[in-house]
Amino acid sequence: MTAYPLSAALPRQRGGNVASAYRAERRKLLAQLSTRVLALVCVLGPVAFAVIVSEQSGVPADSLLGVWVHSSGYAVSFLVLGFAGSVGFALIAGVLAGDLFSSEDRYGTWKTVLTRSRSRGEVFAGKLLAATALTVTLAVLVALSSLVAGLLLTGDQPLVGLGGRVVPSGECLWLVIASWLLTIPPLLAFTSLAVLFSVATRNGIAGVLGPVLAALVMQLLALIGSGTWLHMLLLTSAFDSWHGLLGAPKFYGPTIIGACVCIAWVVACLGCSWLLLRRRDFAGPPVTRRAGWIPLARAALASAALIAILAAAGNLGPAAVTKGRLESSIGPAFSNLTTLQQKELGRFVAQGSQLNLITRCSRRSGKSEGAGDDWSCTMAVVSPTPGYSPLEVKPVTYDVGVKSNGCYKAQAPPSFVGQQMMSDAHGHSTVNPLFTIYGCFDITGAAARCPETTQCPRTSKEPRTRTPGPPVVSRSTERALLREAERKAGPGVMHEIEEAEKAGQREAEHPPREPPVIGK
């Protein structure tokens, strides 16, 4: 009897079986009408959005970088990325992977599939690879479409990033590419979640809509509570990790944590899916299930209980949004945007100069921590840095809305900062940088603390060129000097800040008719 080297031939046979299963599942997905329609939407959707935005005079100011869509084409790609991360990628994962396994149960083809020299593991791996490859492909199509549409319709001008830093065109291109690449781990996690829904429920509708509903629930949970532990475990938070690339200074804590969380989600979802599929009996006669409301009611009650438990855990961990973090972020952003405004108006500003500010942030309701739209920040110039041309700037109060991911949008009344559009030194209409401030801070880093009557220290580690000035002193000495300068100025400085806060609160009801102080 001849002995064959099965140990050497078997690995090649298994590898070929996985590859053939992948090709078969890929052809099945590409032949479906839903996949073709989805691919068409991924290509034409960003183009249609860019065309609509370019033809309108208004801007989506509520979205991050929304006011810059007419100034830089890169802002269009970032806006599309923000929408895709909220619900778009979950829909792509659901359509491609949500009916991948449940369709075999619906048509009763498991026996045929598993008797064609294919094991359960090979079929599972082939289906998973096909869904993953097509999901990533559609994400790449969205990225390329949004980038090309923005550059063709708006241009490759520099972009004002999060925190007021002007990002050159070449750096913007790499930041766009890196930002879209950072969305691949959470996209794969949603694909794994769709596979779990498909295997566990054996229902195509549940598999397709399950990831979308999960994404919506995660967005609602992100609005509840002020802690960081639960929010960092949500997949929707991992989609926001690109904010750190545009921050000033840049931060990478949420990116690292988000990648680890996505890996945990992928391992957990695929592990549960494989355990369910491996133990399922496909050899016997098909089991007829009696339709009824009891299983649906149980699933609804279990889901509601889980959501309630997660909502109660929203306050676990240190607070993500704090008064100190907001003050240490919005102060430098206001200084950077003031410098940009003065340059666009044709005024000389020394290289690397910054304003020395007294920044005070407070919340109108509750403690001065947590996300919400009821934050208020007042900034006043104490003294100009050496080399900075003196400016007559009064205390300016911004109404600030902060999200749990550390990103905020700040707006001030036009009587303080001017209108949204202004004329530059050449007479061209351009965006007033101080009208809307976008920024993000690291919610995973050490909480910054800024006393109410001192300047928030700069956290940027980026080198900068300073004009010759006083000798460098320690941070404690600098704070002492600022307190001494405020004491010499008398109570008038703090009185002006308080009056500015009151004026900002009255602006919504009775806008004053005084001319703008900045940007006039």
Structural key phrases:
520 residues, alpha+beta, 2 domains, five-stranded antiparallel β-sheet, 9 strands, elongated, disordered N terminus, disordered C terminus
Low-confidence stretches: 1-14, 449-473, 512-520
Helix fraction by DSSP (H/I, runs of at least 4)? 40-55%
Order of helices and strands: HHHHHHEEHHHHHHHHHEEEEHEEEHH
Q: Count the helices. How many?
A: 18
Structurally, the number of domains stands at: 2
Gyration radius, to the nearest Å? Answer: 28 Å
Largest sheet, described in full?
A: 5 strands, antiparallel
* Amount of beta strand: 5-15%
Overall 3D geometry?
A: elongated
Explained architecture:
- The chain is an alpha+beta fold and 520 residues long.
- The chain has two domains: 287 residues, no CATH class; 170 residues, no CATH class.
- The protein contains 18 helices and nine strands.
- The strands form three sheets. The chain has a five-stranded antiparallel β-sheet with strand order 3-4-5-6-9. A two-stranded antiparallel ribbon has the order 1-2.
- The protein is elongated.
- The N terminus and C terminus are likely disordered.
Give a quick summary of the entry.
54% of the residues lie in helices and 9% in strands. The chain is an alpha+beta fold.
Task: Reconstruct the topology from this structure.
Layout: H1 6-31, H2 33-55, H3 74-97, H4 102-107, H5 110-114, H6 120-153, E1 159-160, E2 166-167, H7 169-181, H8 184-201, H9 204-222, H10 229-232, H11 235-238, H12 243-246, H13 253-278, H14 294-312, H15 323-344, E3 355-363, E4 372-384, E5 396-402, E6 407-411, H16 414-417, E7 421-423, E8 429-431, E9 436-440, H17 475-489, H18 492-507
Antiparallel strand pairs: 1-2, 3-4, 4-5, 5-6, 6-9, 7-8
